[in-house]
Amino acid sequence: MDKNLIAQPFPVAKSDLKKIVYGACFFASGGGGPISMAIDFLDKINKTVYFINTDRLELDKYCIAIADMGSPDAGKEGKGYTAPVNVFKVMADYLSKQGDAVSCILPFELGAVNTLIPFYVASQMDSPIPVINADPAGRAVPELEMTLLDMAGTPICPGAVASDTAPDGTYQSQMFFDLDPDQLEDASRDVVIGYGGVGGLACYPIICSQLDSTKSENEKKLIQGSVGLAWNIGEQLLKFQPLSSLQKLLSSFNIRSYMWISGKITKIDNRSCGGFDVGKVILSAQEREIWIYYKNESLLAWDPQASKPLGMGPDGIAFVLAEDHVYESGTPVSNADISEGVSYNVMGFTSFEKLRNQTLVNMFMKNIQSIVAAFPEDHVNVDVYVPIEKLNAGI
Questions:
Q1: How much is the pLDDT for 287?
Q2: Is there a contact between 89 and 53 (Cβ–Cβ < 8 Å)?
Q3: Which of 35, 83, 155, 248 is most open to solvent, judged by the fewest CB atoms within 10 Å of its CB?
Q4: Domain of 47?
């Protein structure tokens, strides 16, 4: 079904949300929340929700970006399931006091949890509120500033964080004003630590006329149709067919993909560098080995035999189970879900063209360099972004 040609807002059933979760997890490049947590959120959705394209928005009303933030481990402990709803209410109440009404929710990024969160929040409302069929990141990103909205000069504040609901029905929250994305990230994470390590984040309150895709000046702010794309790709993934079928479907959307290895994780090496947690995954298959470097999100795939990169952010790197392990073989998983001793197919794929603007590329390169600096013994040196299709021209 062409989701650009159907009536809006479009109803999304629970079975369709699962497709969106799987597709968003694939595009997230290892971040965006664990698929295990997303499935738990999905189990709590018991009503029809809706999505809407940006040419059908109520232009005089507001949109809010919503995400979960904090520790994936806290999520696995059952925390963080009421915080996104609470933070939506905090921001909506703030805007209401300014005389502004909220008519839709925007996913902050593509990811199993963070693309589903807006639908979950919508399902907890008395009246339906649609989720926008777009996002400002096109994948999961390691820093709040790495979005197209920020590139377009859209203020991220006012922002808000909120805790889970306590047994007595109360919750904590805090508003932030006049902060840039770096400052909001630092301030909100400090507060969320006090909430038990996980909370809800609301940011980018923006009047819908500034997202209207019929106006050319708004086109650069979002990856249009990304939720519908995740739906289509997730539908294919849930058929659990050979990944060559997935690659053909990706190609039909002008996304080139490359199968690098079907191998077992022999080591996950987590370290700290410059105040950030970073890591390296080693996958082995027969005489071949590849290394994946991550800062929550996978940002660099490296061929140690050839001593060269296979792919780097903003291009994507996806782990897909090559054997049954908690989930069925063929399930995409985040870096929070992977385990040593388990076999995975590792794929690379081209990013959306909008993400290849020089400012964003420079941010990805800075993050990549901070990761490899934590592994000096590897002698990995990446100075410049090279598109994945050039790095894999022979495949």
A1: 86
A2: no
A3: 248
A4: 10-230
